[in-house]
Amino acid sequence: MTTPETARGGTYDHLDALPYAMVVVRDSHIIHANPAFCTLMGYPREQVVGASIEKFSTHEAPLMTERHQRRMRGERVPPIYETALRGARGELRVELNVSVSGPDTLVLVRDLSDRLLQRQILQRMATLGASLPGIHSEQEVLQRVFDGLAELGLSHGYLVPEGERVRLAHAFVAEHTTPQESRFNGQHLVDAQGSWSPLLQRAWREGAAHAESLAWEADQFVGKDRREPVQAFLRLLAPLPTVCARIDGEAEGQALLTVAARWLSEEELPAVRLFAAQVSAALASARIISRLSTHNTALAALNRLAAVAATAREPQDIFEPGAAELFALLRCEAVSFLLWLEQTHEMQLVWQQGLSERAAHYYLRYPLGGTMADVVLRQDYPQVRYIEEFPDPTHTHLRDAQLSAVAMAPLKTGSRMVGTLVISFKERRVLTHLEQETLRAMGVHFAAAIESHRLLQEVRGRAEELARLHEELQRTQRQLVERERLAALGELSAVLAHEVRNPLGAIFNALAALRRYQEPDSPGHLLVGIVSEEAHRLNRLVDDLLDFARPAQPQPQPIPLAHLLEEAVNAASPAQAHVRVEWALAPDVPPILVDERMMRQAFLNLALNAVQAMPQGGTLRVSARRRAEGPGATVEFTDTGPGIPPHLRARLFEPFFTTKATGTGLGLAIVQRNLDAHGGQISIDHPATGGTTFRLEIPSAPEPQGSRQG
Fold it and tell me: Minimal CA–CA distance to 246: which of 212, 211, 201?
């Protein structure tokens, strides 16, 4: 600005060197205009100098005239104000800085066209901020911010503090920022970590800060870590002025937003600070909406899981739907369930989805001590660990599966620890408080289902044991009743035998005398034969009754099995001459420890029973072999008779039950009694080809004390 003394010199040629536009007005005419003014207005100098000021006036000319007149009268008028001038290319928005020097008025003209564009950008930035509320996720809010700033042609960056370091999570270079480096224009750069520069520190502390150039700030951020393309990327923005504002979270700062442009100055601090506040509010709103949505989603998942758990018959019935809820809720890669084996202090993998076959095999069963599961079970709270915190081979399994983090939650019902729930992630992440509480709640449902199944199994086992004990008690009671009945029958049989056999002796003596006195051709021979046969039948009945009722106490001795069988079959064969005997005696059957008399009687009764079942002849097959389990032998008597009708099979071993006209009904009952006395079993098969097979499982009884000589 020239002084009054210079103005009175009559020449203003020295103003031509000024970089900004300047004119001198006298009596409403321009007496001097420097080149910068002529360039701004778009006219050659000869058309400007000497022209009336009204040539460049617009509709705002009366206001300019009125201010000039007031100034000439000595009134106080603001020296700086905005107005419009008419140039060769149209209307220009300018700022006038007016001063009076004698009869002349010196006017400094500043072009506000760029300033108007800048204000429009700031206004659009405020509009962008106002459009953010209502977006439901933080990521969507940030994406809208980044896209909006890019559309406004503003280079920007988003930085997230990480302790003593700060991470450049997102960056963008506006087009035409540096034409010589067009390969970076419009590109994004993410996840570049650096140091806190002074600008970042001031913005974090004060809420917003301005820097005329990012050159030194970028150098401080990169520090010694001069990696490409980070260094080259930041070098593009280094010459630009920038404003950095803090993005606030719920209780403290959350991130930093930087905006860079050639026209940014400290005057734009309030506008950028306002935009940062709008972004902060939108992020807070999105967090609340996301939290509520996540909370509702978690509650819905828990309700569905509770419904499944209430009807699950097996733990596997809840594992699969529970894992599906976890995959949807946490976006995880694998879910597995580990149960704690209290007796062995081990963890056992009982269900998994997403693990490799190798990892699943490794974790099928492993010691609990010193593992992450051990810590989670002791602390009773979900935890997250990252891949570098695990030793081998767990570290190798996670790396091969491209997993970065593992979350683990306890499975607990009441005070009882059941196991752990394991969730694996590809990306590093931290569980929110809501996620932790959701995992704890899910763990309770899983644990309750597992524990209910365990208790149900115990109840079933006890019920089966009670049923077994009840059956054993009933069997014991039946045996006791049978023994009492047999004891009573034995006493009755002894009395009956004494009372019956005395008359039988007299009958046999009388029959012998009658045979001596009868003539050979006497018709009484037939009657004597009938009486003799019935007397012998009555005598056999008494013998069978005594055998059945007499308490049987085996006296086991080593007896060759083949010898016993041959004696019994030879004794039974004369009863039916048309029966063919077929032997199948294994050569490796050793002598067995049995009571010889009792076992011979059992074999004889079975052989007689088979022979009598084939009155028209047939084949009796007798086989013997070693028992499949334990010492002893398996003996089978198979006939080719008509078989036993199904409605009679259940009564075969009942005492006194018989279908034979001359039978006593005690033969098979004695066989079963003798087998029971030896701890053996008898069963009946009915081959499809016909006939009947009686199978005897005869264990080798322990040799009694003193039976061995040595």
Answer: 201
